[in-house]
Amino acid sequence: MEHLSNALKAVFKEQDGDEVLFCADMLQKDNQYNRGEMPRPDTEMKESQIQYLLRKVNAYNTLDQESIVGQVVVSEWMKPLKSHKELKSFDLSVFNMLLHFACKTIYFKNNDPVCHYSKLLRWHNVSNLFGEDTFTTVFAASLDIVNKSKRKYFDWPAYIDHNNKEINALFKNKMADLHMHLKGSSYNFDISWLSIMNNITSMENVFTEVYNLRKTYGWDKDLYAKMYRACAIRLYLASRTGLLSENAQITSAQLSNIIDDKINNANDAIAKSAIDESVKRQLLESHSLEFLLSKAKETSKHFEDKSDYQDLDYIRIPRYNKDNVRSILSSERELMYSVFRLLLEGCDDYKDISSLFYSYLCYKVKFRNAIIQLNSTVGFHNFTLYEEIKDKFIAKRHKKFLYKAAIESFLINGKDRYLETRIVPDTTAEGIAEKIKEIAESVDEKYKERFSIILHFIKSRDERKDKEYRHKELREDIKKRAFAIHKFRNNAEYLGVGSEDYPLSGYVVGIDTANTELMCRPEVFAQAFRFLRYHNIKNNGRQRPNDLNITYHVGEDFYDIADGLRAVEEAMIYFNLKNGDRLGHCLVLGTDVRKYYSMRYNTICCTKQVLLDNMAWLHHKCKRLFGYTSLCYYLEGIFNQYFYDVYQGQIYQDGKINYELLDDPDVNNNINDYYQSWVLRGNNPKFASDMEESDDELEQEWDNCAENHEYGIEIAKFNINALELFDQYHKDEIVERGSEAVAFTIKESYVEDFYKLLEAIQEQLLKEIESKRISIECNPTSNYKIGEMSNYDEHPILKFYNSGLNTPYNKHDIAVSINTDDQGVFSTSLEREYSLIALAIERHQTEGFKNSPRQIIDWLDKIRQMSVEQQFDNDIFNYKKN
Ligand SMILES: [Zn+2]
């Protein structure tokens, strides 16, 4: 099916909607009409047109390969499906390609589309690109015509179920999603699409804003114009399929006036004409998309028995007997279903409808790929680009639906479900209360007690506007937000809504951080985390909020494995992580050391500071794990070199040592002192020099957390040299010299020892996490898209927890959970994440380490149970009431 997937990518993702309209003579290009020279790609696509698109997919090495796939598209996939009598096919059409894919992967069960379990991975990867609805609606239309039935229900899950009975049974038990970010966990694409299709004329500035942010990353500058045309086409298709009430329908003449440049000429002519001004205005208005759209929206306000979600769309959103948040998805599904049906049953204007719908789908897929992270470039930078536009296109009054869908789409699937969602804390207590209230208000009464909130700070690079110490601006911002959280939790007056008033602070159960970690290490958050964790609630006992637990995103993105492992240990030391706390992702603990470094020819690219820190840290680890070996000697040599370079700029300049200054250096290059200074980095930058005393009670509480009082850290404090190095670390010239980038290659003769050391450290940290009973939150699809896995079965979860499974890895029993992270961005659900992992393990069995399906399901079920155990809020049904 690989070729069919590539062909689908070519025909639906690489095809431009404008091109389709041009070939159909509906749009001018370079002031020209097509006039029948290029065949319409939807029904008459030529092999050369497909080959051109296939080249853009870039999946084939030779032109001959592209050519043969192009031939198959024309001779087979665009043709009716002969062997499927249960399906009605199109005449020669690109839409048959969708049916070809759908009939191999999905079927209908109890009237809802369901995926064959064995095809789930393929379905997931391909439907991600186009949206599942593109396939499910064409399949439903095709089946229903043969069955002579007409579908009324379109509220199947956003990500369809599969037919593995045992795994489905597992989902009927208690389930918890512990790691999801509210903003990216909703029907992000679908709500954005409806928002644009209903409000396009007021969104030009949003498109311009995003274009300016994204132009260097290939954002289409004509995207607004394209969405404008898509919007007009949608209005017309809804008219043509009877989904708009008669007085709101538009004609094909009105449509072509809008999508074609002719409109400008026509409007110019009207504007210049000598007719009465008011008539002129009326005429101009009746031509405009804004006017037609507002008419459609106006009539939708008068629907009888309106769905609660009708505000989102001018097409009627069906009201089902089990009306729930999935209804949001149903109006667009019904539109697609109806157009597919119209085409399958035949109509007089078949050619035009077909071209219009094809261009509509191309526009939609284009937008989908623009806002959802789908391109194959791995890495966090890529991801953060998408992060910023997750909810940009959603009109403000529709945000409540975004929250609602994020929380309810998971909770409606079972009665014992619970989730912890993450939001950024505001800088004021009122701001935090307002935001939480807004979220709680958007959620249905029966789900109000089934979710909690984790407040996450955002990592960002050191701005260095104020150079007093590292990350000064961010540290101050964190402190402000930490104080806001503190005040918010102490104020029992912040109450929620509903039949009973829930104290809002009861929703908050933990703290976390998010965003790329390369330029922002755990040390920046340490004081705030200690401060919030040990926060004493004084609010006259009207409420009992949970103690705040800690979870921390770490080891997801790193310069190299040593750097990532060190970050994990920093989080553990600086935050005093303990049983009940969690770590997010930790991919670095399961990354294959040998594969990772050999792929990079044993060269590490990072900053001098990071390399220097890594050397001191690895040196310490090496001594502890293997004793003083020759590798220690090697690490020391590199350490000395970079220490001179970064810390002793005057002594070491232009690659030479100034021996006269060497007698009296500012700081000594003792690698052990340096290691001790690293241990202290979780302390406030000024703790060793000049902390001012404050009268303010809150400030005093904050100051009490300036130092990490754990045993080993207290000892480091008595090392004068380490203290001096700690102060130096925050000095501007050190920061500057240390931030220079280097490419460092491990010396050939030490490569094997280096690998062994890193493998030993991974193992040591895993054991430590296991014995401290800290748990790890895993997010398979997110990790697959951001990390370096080539398949789901390479996910480190198998190294963290493999009790009961046969694997080639060391045995570990770490408490893990499977979660979704950003399900709206990664197009997934918790059920899908569980299933993909199970399927991948079943499919990719290592010789000598086979597992039966039952073994895998039992293992999965243990993970489900552990997720429930690890939730921060263990008393969700009792404490929120007064
Ligand atoms: Zn996350």
UniProtKB/TrEMBL annotation:
<dbReference type="GO" id="GO:0046872">
    <property type="term" value="F:metal ion binding"/>
</dbReference>
<dbReference type="GO" id="GO:0043103">
    <property type="term" value="P:hypoxanthine salvage"/>
</dbReference>
<dbReference type="GO" id="GO:0005829">
    <property type="term" value="C:cytosol"/>
</dbReference>
<comment type="similarity">
    <text>Belongs to the metallo-dependent hydrolases superfamily. Adenosine and AMP deaminases family.</text>
</comment>
<dbReference type="GO" id="GO:0046103">
    <property type="term" value="P:inosine biosynthetic process"/>
</dbReference>
<dbReference type="InterPro" id="IPR032466">
    <property type="entry name" value="Metal_Hydrolase"/>
</dbReference>
<dbReference type="InterPro" id="IPR001365">
    <property type="entry name" value="A_deaminase_dom"/>
</dbReference>
<keyword id="KW-0862">Zinc</keyword>
<dbReference type="GO" id="GO:0004000">
    <property type="term" value="F:adenosine deaminase activity"/>
</dbReference>
<protein>
    <recommendedName>
        <fullName>adenosine deaminase</fullName>
        <ecNumber>3.5.4.4</ecNumber>
    </recommendedName>
</protein>
<dbReference type="Pfam" id="PF00962">
    <property type="entry name" value="A_deaminase"/>
</dbReference>
<keyword id="KW-0479">Metal-binding</keyword>
<feature type="domain" description="Adenosine deaminase">
    <location>
        <begin position="763"/>
        <end position="838"/>
    </location>
</feature>
<dbReference type="InterPro" id="IPR006330">
    <property type="entry name" value="Ado/ade_deaminase"/>
</dbReference>
<dbReference type="GO" id="GO:0006154">
    <property type="term" value="P:adenosine catabolic process"/>
</dbReference>
<keyword id="KW-0378">Hydrolase</keyword>
